[in-house]
Amino acid sequence: MKLSSSIGLATALLLSAASAQTYQRLGTCPTLGCVFPPDQADFLAGQFFDIRLEVHAPVNGSEANGLLPDENFTFSIAKKGKKETLAAKYFNVAEPKLERWNFTWYEDLFARDAKTPSLVNVTAKAYRRVALFEAGEYTATLTYNNGSKTVANWLVRDLETVRKTKNVVLFIGDGMTTNMITAARLIGHKTINGKYQSKMQMDKFPVLGHQMTHSIDSFITDSANSATALYTGHKSTVNCLGVYADSSKDPFDDPKVETIAEMFHRLTGGAVGIVSTAFIADATPAALTAHTRDRSQYGAVIDSFLYGITNYTWTNWTGPDVLFGGGAEQFYSPALGGKTYQNKDWYEEFQKNGYEVHWNKTSLATAKSTDKALGIFTVSNMAKWLDRNVYTTNLNQSLSPSGDKTAALDQPGLKEMTLKAVDILHKRSGNKGFFLMSEAASIDKMMHVLDYDRALGELLELDDTIKATIAKLKDLDVLKDTLVLVTADHGHGFDVMGSVDTTYLAAQNVDRKKRDAVGTYQNSGLSQYQNTGNLTYTDSNFPSNWSPRYTLFQGLMADPDRRENWSVRKDGPRLPATPVDDTKKEYVANPNDGAGGIKLDGTLPVGDDQGVHSLTDVPVFAMGPCQELFGGVYSSIDIFFGMAECLGLARGNKSGY
Amino acid sequence: MKLSSSIGLATALLLSAASAQTYQRLGTCPTLGCVFPPDQADFLAGQFFDIRLEVHAPVNGSEANGLLPDENFTFSIAKKGKKETLAAKYFNVAEPKLERWNFTWYEDLFARDAKTPSLVNVTAKAYRRVALFEAGEYTATLTYNNGSKTVANWLVRDLETVRKTKNVVLFIGDGMTTNMITAARLIGHKTINGKYQSKMQMDKFPVLGHQMTHSIDSFITDSANSATALYTGHKSTVNCLGVYADSSKDPFDDPKVETIAEMFHRLTGGAVGIVSTAFIADATPAALTAHTRDRSQYGAVIDSFLYGITNYTWTNWTGPDVLFGGGAEQFYSPALGGKTYQNKDWYEEFQKNGYEVHWNKTSLATAKSTDKALGIFTVSNMAKWLDRNVYTTNLNQSLSPSGDKTAALDQPGLKEMTLKAVDILHKRSGNKGFFLMSEAASIDKMMHVLDYDRALGELLELDDTIKATIAKLKDLDVLKDTLVLVTADHGHGFDVMGSVDTTYLAAQNVDRKKRDAVGTYQNSGLSQYQNTGNLTYTDSNFPSNWSPRYTLFQGLMADPDRRENWSVRKDGPRLPATPVDDTKKEYVANPNDGAGGIKLDGTLPVGDDQGVHSLTDVPVFAMGPCQELFGGVYSSIDIFFGMAECLGLARGNKSGY
C-alpha cells in the first residue's frame, strides 16, 4: 500500500529525516533515554538484530531541561536471575563509537501552524548484528544523565525447535478486512434463500484467527511497519522496513532486525519467493530483505533483493529464487527513463546473477523451473483484475516493462505468477523447502482511491489464486508439507450497507433526492452481480455482471471530498479528488469522477486526496502443519513467531553461527 | 436493535401487512408458487415447523398473466430415494382448508413515486406443527397452475445425538463487529510499544469463527431475522421472529419454526434464561419464544414469554426461569400508562405464575436462586454503562419500572443480571442443565445514533460480563460442562481511522480547517483513554478518561446528516439528526448535537435519522464442550445447529413426541 500521494515523497522524507512526529518526540521513547529494540520487544532465539541507544537533550519546548546530551551513558544486559553485564562484553563486540545529531519535531498542531518546532540534541551508539540465544526474560538498561535509567524488558520466546513444515506459503491481501471478504463473497458467489451455493477458498480454511495490527508508536499502521511485524516479530514505526526508527537523519542507519526470509535462507538454505501485484519495491515485498526507515528508498530496495544489506555487516543473502511483480521503472536503464539504484540496468544485474528475466505472461509460462526468475510485467503497479479481464481497453497505456513506452498488454495475474513461483520454488528447493510470500497489493491500492469494485475484484483474484495454489500443492504432493496462511497487514474502514438503484439515482436531479436510491435492510434485496449478466470465467467465482442496475451501497468511513455514484468505473481506477491549485495542498471532489453521483464532503484533512488505513483486527486463515498456532486473537508479531516455530528456525546456541 | 425510528410503527406495520417489498414481490418466492420453508432450508431432526403454501396471481404489473389464483394446487414430500407422498398423508394430518387474500407491492422506486402498486391475488394453505425425523435430503413439491412446479430442497442434518454439554451460555453483542472489538480494546486496555498489557476476555477464547449474516431475501439483516437464524437454524425476512414471512395480512399466521429454547425446554426440561439490556420485548430476546412476522407486536411478545404460542397448536412452554431487562411499559398497568397485552398488569401475571419480581439492582441482589425471576429495571431500554458509571446525572429521567414516573436510578448492568441469572439457572436446573441468552443490546442502539463512545462502553461491559460469568461458572464447578459462545447478529459499518485533536478542532472556525485536527497513520499516535485520566473501576478494563484531548477518529460508513466533533456526549446518548418539519419525512443535522463539530451530509435517504446495519461477517468466540464446531467461516444458522448438536437435541424418531 501507499501513503496518500498528497503527502508526497518530499514531505515523507522530511518527516522521516527529522522524525517530526506531530504529538510525539519519538514514539518509542517517552523518556529522554532511548533503547532500541525497546521495552516489550520479543525475539526469536538466534535472530540477528542491531541495538541503538540515544540520549535526548531537548533545547526548547515543554521538555527542555538545560542539559547537554550525555556522552557517558552506559548500557548493560541481564538475563533474569543472572548478573548485569555491559553490552560490549555481553555480546563480545567492540564498544561502538559515540554519534551525535539533532532533530526537530512539533509538539502539536498549534506549534505546526505557528512554525515553532522543538529542537533536540542527541548522543547515540549502535551495536550491530548481535543475537540472543537462550530463551527467557532479559532486561536491557540504559543509564544516562547521572543515574536516570531506561529499562527495556525483552523476551526471547521459548519455542519448539523441531521443524514441522517443509514449506510456508504466506498470502497477504494488502488492506484486506473481513468486511471486504464478505462483500467479495456477495458479488462473486450465488445465494439461494440466504444459502451460498459455493464457498470462497478462504471460507474453507480450518483455522481462523484475528491479528491486532497496532503499530509500535501509533495505533494505525501502514504496510511497511506491518510487514516488518509479520516478517520479523518486531513492531515498528510507519514507513519502517525491517528496522526500528531512530531519530537520526540517515534512513539506512536505523537498528535492523532479521526477517523470516533472511533467517530461513541463512539457516536452512531453502528457497525464497516474492510475488506481488504492486511495483516490486513496494513495502510488502520490500520488507522481506530491505532495512530502512524510509520505505520510499525504492532503488535501495531493489539492491537489497539481489545483494541483501551491504552497508553493514549483516546476514548472508544471495537473492530470492523468484521475484515477480511490477515496477519496471526501478529496473530499466536511466537512458530509457528508469529511476534505478546507482544508475544500473537492474535487468542486466539480475541476469548476471543467474536470473531468467520475464516481461509478460507468455514468457512467464515458458520459464524453466530450474532457474532463478525475475518477472517484471509493467511500469508501476500491475493492471487490476477488472482491467485485465473485463475493461481491457484500459491496458492501452505506455507501461511496457521494457521501458519502450509500448503498452503492457500481456500481464499475468496473481494466479499465474504464484503458480509459476510454486513450480520454481518446489523444483529448486529440493528437500530444503521454500518460503513464498504472495501479495494481492491492489486490494489496498484500490480502496485508497475508493474504487470498491476494483478492490473486490483483486480480492476475488486472491481467493482464486489461493484455490489454484492449494490444487497445485496437492498435485505436487506437498500440500501436507506446506503451511498455507492468508492474512492482511491492516484494514480500511469499509463496509456494505445495502443496495443502490443506479437507474433511479441517475434519474434524479437533486443530491438529497438521489439519496432515496439507497435501499437498506430488506430493501437491500439480493446481490445482482451473480443473478444477471453474461460474463463467465472458467472454474472461477467472479461476478457475471459488474454493472447491474442494483449495485452495492458501499464505502469507507473516512474520505476525501468526492462524488459517489456507486457504479463501476469502466475507464480505469477512480481518482476521487483533485487539487484546487498547483500547490496540491487542498483537494476537492474530482468533477470527472462519479458522474451523476452525490457530491460529498469528506472528513479527512483537505490535503488528503484518498482514503486511509483503519484500526480493525484483520483475519488470518491457516491450513497445514502448525495450523493450530493461528487460531484465536493475537498480535501481528505472532504470525512471525508461528511461522518461525513451524519452520524450526529458533537457535538456542551459537553453533553454526 | 431497532429499525430507524423515522420509519415508525405505522409504516412498519404497513410494510409487513402488505409485504410491500420495493424490488421484490416476495423475496423467498421468485416464481408464482411459494413453499415455506423454502428451497435450501435445513432442519434439526424432530424440530417442529409449519408449512405455508401460496399460489400468486398477479393482476397487474410486469408479472400479470391473466390467471386466477389456483384453488387446486397440490403439495407432496419425498425423501431422497423414496416415493413422493401427499403432505397430509406424509405427516398424517388433515388437509388444511384453502385461504385467500391479496397484497400489493412496488416493483421499484419509480412505481413507488408514481403510486402505482402491483396487485396480487393469493390462494394458500398451511400445515401446522409437523416435523421431519429421518436425516437426509427431501424434496417438497408444490404443483400449481396445471403443472407448474416449485420444488424446495430440504435437508435434515445428520447430527450426533449424544449430549455433550450440560449448559449453553450464548452472549450476543447486538450489532457487534470485529472492528468495534478492536476499538474497544484500544480504549479499555493499555499498550506499551504496541503490546497490550491486558487482554479482552473475548481475545482469550480458544476458538474463533465468522458467521455470515445474509438474510433469506436481502443481504442486509435486522436483529429479528438474524436472531431467528441463530435460534432456529432457519434464515428469514427482516422483522420476522421465529417464522417465515408469508404474504398474508395477519402478522401471527406465518409459518413457525421451533426455537432452541423451545426444543431444549420441551425435550430436556432444562431451565431457560433470557437477559437483555434492551426493553425485553425487543427482537433479540423476543425471538426465543415469539412467532410473528412483525417484531413490533411487543405485547404479544410478553405474552409469548410467559405462555408460549397459544393461538395455534405448538410446542409446550411454561415460561423462562429468568427474564431480565428493560421495557416496563409493556408490564405495568394501563392505568399508569402501560401499553400492555390485553390490558393486563403483567407484573401480576408473572407473579401469579410463580415469579419473583425485581425492579432494581438492590432487589435483584437478594433474589432467591430457587425461584423463577422477572427483573424489569426501567421503562424502555436500560441505561448505558457510561451513564450508570460516569455521567450518572443522565439517570434523572421518569423511567421507574413501577410506572410511578420517578427515576430508575438503581439499575443493574449486564454483569449483575447475567451473574444472578446463572445462579438461578444453575440452582433450578439441577441435573437438567440450562440455556442462557445474554444480550448487550445497546452496542447496536448506540451505533444507530452514532454514539460511538457509549457503544464501546457497552461492548466493554459485555466483555467484563463474559469475564465475570466464566469466573462464576468456574466457582460453581460447571465451566467444563458449559459451552460459552459470544457472537453478534449483524454489523454496523464502523471503524477507527486515527485520532482527533479536539482542542485544535474546537479552536478552528471553518469546517475545512477543522478537518486538519484529524491525525492518520503515524499521527494517530497512541490511545489517550488509558494513558490519562483518573477514573478507576475495580478489577475491570474501562477507560480511565472518556474525554482526552486526542480522541478516536471513528465513525460509520453510512450516515444521516449530522455534525461530528468526535467527543463523548456527556449529557446522554446522541441524537444526530432532527426532522425539518412535523411530517418527519426529512431529517437534517441536529443543531444541538456535536457542538463545535464539522457539519456533514449523509449518504442515507433523507428520511433516515440514524445509521443502519451492514453486511460484514461477525465474529464467534467459542469455549467449552463442542468449541471445535465453531471455528472457521459458516452461516449464521450453523450456530443453532452447533448448539443443538452439543445439547443433543436432534430426534431421529417420533418416540416421546
Automatic annotation (TrEMBL), chains A, B:
<dbReference type="InterPro" id="IPR017850">
    <property type="entry name" value="Alkaline_phosphatase_core_sf"/>
</dbReference>
<feature type="binding site">
    <location>
        <position position="448"/>
    </location>
    <ligand>
        <name>Zn(2+)</name>
    </ligand>
</feature>
<keyword id="KW-0479">Metal-binding</keyword>
<comment type="similarity">
    <text>Belongs to the alkaline phosphatase family.</text>
</comment>
<feature type="binding site">
    <location>
        <position position="490"/>
    </location>
    <ligand>
        <name>Zn(2+)</name>
    </ligand>
</feature>
<feature type="signal peptide">
    <location>
        <begin position="1"/>
        <end position="20"/>
    </location>
</feature>
<dbReference type="GO" id="GO:0004035">
    <property type="term" value="F:alkaline phosphatase activity"/>
</dbReference>
<feature type="binding site">
    <location>
        <position position="174"/>
    </location>
    <ligand>
        <name>Mg(2+)</name>
    </ligand>
</feature>
<keyword id="KW-0460">Magnesium</keyword>
<keyword id="KW-0862">Zinc</keyword>
<feature type="compositionally biased region" description="Basic and acidic residues">
    <location>
        <begin position="564"/>
        <end position="573"/>
    </location>
</feature>
<dbReference type="InterPro" id="IPR001952">
    <property type="entry name" value="Alkaline_phosphatase"/>
</dbReference>
<keyword id="KW-0732">Signal</keyword>
<feature type="binding site">
    <location>
        <position position="284"/>
    </location>
    <ligand>
        <name>Mg(2+)</name>
    </ligand>
</feature>
<dbReference type="Pfam" id="PF00245">
    <property type="entry name" value="Alk_phosphatase"/>
</dbReference>
<feature type="binding site">
    <location>
        <position position="489"/>
    </location>
    <ligand>
        <name>Zn(2+)</name>
    </ligand>
</feature>
<feature type="binding site">
    <location>
        <position position="439"/>
    </location>
    <ligand>
        <name>Mg(2+)</name>
    </ligand>
</feature>
<feature type="active site" description="Phosphoserine intermediate">
    <location>
        <position position="223"/>
    </location>
</feature>
<feature type="binding site">
    <location>
        <position position="613"/>
    </location>
    <ligand>
        <name>Zn(2+)</name>
    </ligand>
</feature>
<feature type="binding site">
    <location>
        <position position="444"/>
    </location>
    <ligand>
        <name>Zn(2+)</name>
    </ligand>
</feature>
<feature type="region of interest" description="Disordered">
    <location>
        <begin position="564"/>
        <end position="594"/>
    </location>
</feature>
<dbReference type="GO" id="GO:0046872">
    <property type="term" value="F:metal ion binding"/>
</dbReference>
<feature type="binding site">
    <location>
        <position position="282"/>
    </location>
    <ligand>
        <name>Mg(2+)</name>
    </ligand>
</feature>
<protein>
    <recommendedName>
        <fullName>alkaline phosphatase</fullName>
        <ecNumber>3.1.3.1</ecNumber>
    </recommendedName>
</protein>
<feature type="binding site">
    <location>
        <position position="174"/>
    </location>
    <ligand>
        <name>Zn(2+)</name>
    </ligand>
</feature>
